[in-house]
């Protein structure tokens, strides 16, 4: 199958900072009458004899997004139809019957995929407490792939990525980090010797709650070729419009993440004082905060119906603030508190966010 090299290759970039890379990577070259943005190329097929040939093998709009995310993560990127399509493609690297180690509080869809694969005898899974580094290192011994998510969703636990990666590599296992929550601005796993980075580009990367897309990034050319081959074969490719939207969103990633993080940090300071809450979980960075209502699930459900600004919705990483009681999903593990509400803090004014949330919380205790 043809090599994917159709898109305008980005001109070699100097040693620019991430915010400059987010704005400049994946653009056409600076020549007269070139558009500043790679256009939306609607094409199922191409004139024969070139590098692309067919719409499942490549598209210039995907490639522009891939160049930009690859530059931010420090590797080569492949985009997928969704985050879970990327997860499935990576899990398929594991041989039949081999063992995968994963956090028990991984993204729920990832845990469900692992359970499905295990139930069909495709692989074995060992779910671990990702904060217990010694236990994770021990679990690595006979593993083929170690899946990491840090922070985890929605428990917001942090893994010791470097120590676990050394142990996994000693065992000959691949290490994958789902970097959806941190984004490459707050965490660059490939620099910690991790083999593969996975993203739900649906979340912070695109950032406007209007597109589903996923990505895998690696600095290993062999792994890139294997995954590209799988994508060609299975066809879990992104839409052209989605790729355009995701890249357009990526241009402001640094501003959005900075603002969401600043808002989250301020809200955490204020929430910690509130009597309606038993717990506020925040790893210190990023825009996701989990709060646990002292009065449990009913109070949490009530909270999600009492606000005007905060929207009750699943998903995260958009410009708008959303929140959700995670245990409303039957598949959410019982180790997640029943009254836990995950906040995805947006980029609105922090005082407006606080007034709306505090008003609803006050009602619960008042
Ligand atoms: C949403 C999410 C996914 C799945 O991505 P989709 O784009 O919804 O398929 C995977 N990992 C994490 C951490 C997520 O938040």
From TrEMBL:
Enzyme Commission number(s) of this protein: 4.4.1.2
Chain residue ranges for the region called Disordered: 1-36
Enzyme class: lyase
Gene Ontology CC annotation, any one: cytoplasm
Cofactors: pyridoxal 5'-phosphate
UniProt GO molecular function: cystathionine gamma-lyase activity; cystathionine gamma-synthase activity; homocysteine desulfhydrase activity; methionine gamma-lyase activity; pyridoxal phosphate binding
Entry similarity comment: Belongs to the trans-sulfuration enzymes family.
Protein known as: homocysteine desulfhydrase
Organism this protein belongs to: Nocardioides ginsengisegetis
């Amino acid at each position: 199958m043809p090599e994917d090299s159709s898109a305008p290759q980005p001109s070699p970039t100097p040693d620019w900072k991430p915010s400059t890379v987010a704005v400049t990577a994946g653009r056409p070259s600076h020549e007269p009458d070139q558009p500043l943005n790679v256009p939306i190329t609607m094409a199922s097929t191409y004139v024969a004899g070139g590098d692309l040939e067919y719409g499942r093998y490549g598209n210039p709009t995907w490639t522009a997004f891939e160049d930009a995310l690859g530059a931010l993560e420090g590797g080569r990127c492949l985009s997928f139809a969704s985050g879970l399509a990327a997860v499935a493609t990576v899990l398929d690297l594991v041989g039949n019957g081999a063992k995968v180690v994963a956090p028990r509080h991984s993204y729920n869809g990832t845990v469900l995929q692992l359970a499905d694969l295990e139930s069909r005898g495709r692989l074995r899974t060992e779910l671990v407490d990702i904060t217990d580094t010694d236990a994770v290192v021990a679990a690595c011994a006979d593993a083929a792939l170690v899946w990491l998510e840090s922070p985890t969703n929605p428990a917001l636990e942090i893994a010791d990525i470097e120590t676990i990666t050394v142990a996994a590599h000693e065992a000959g296992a691949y290490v994958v980090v789902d970097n959806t929550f941190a984004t490459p601005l707050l965490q660059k796993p490939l620099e910690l010797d991790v083999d593969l980075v996975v993203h739900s580009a649906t979340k912070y990367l695109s950032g406007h709650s209007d597109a589903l897309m996923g990505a895998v990034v690696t600095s290993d050319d062999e792994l890139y070729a294997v995954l590209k081959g799988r994508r060609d074969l299975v066809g879990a490719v992104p839409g052209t419009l989605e790729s355009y939207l995701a890249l357009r969103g990526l241009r402001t990633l640094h501003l959005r993440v900075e603002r969401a993080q600043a808002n989250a940090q301020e809200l955490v300071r204020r929430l910690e004082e509130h009597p309606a809450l038993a717990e506020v979980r925040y790893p210190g960075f990023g825009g996701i905060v989990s709060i646990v209502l002292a009065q449990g699930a009913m109070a949490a459900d009530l909270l999600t119906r009492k606000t005007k600004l905060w929207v009750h919705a699943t998903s995260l990483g958009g410009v708008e603030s959303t929140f959700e009681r995670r245990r409303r999903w039957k598949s959410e593990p019982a180790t997640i508190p029943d009254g836990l509400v995950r906040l995805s803090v947006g980029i609105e004014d922090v005082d407006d966010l606080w007034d709306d949330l505090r008003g609803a919380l006050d009602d619960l205790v008042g």
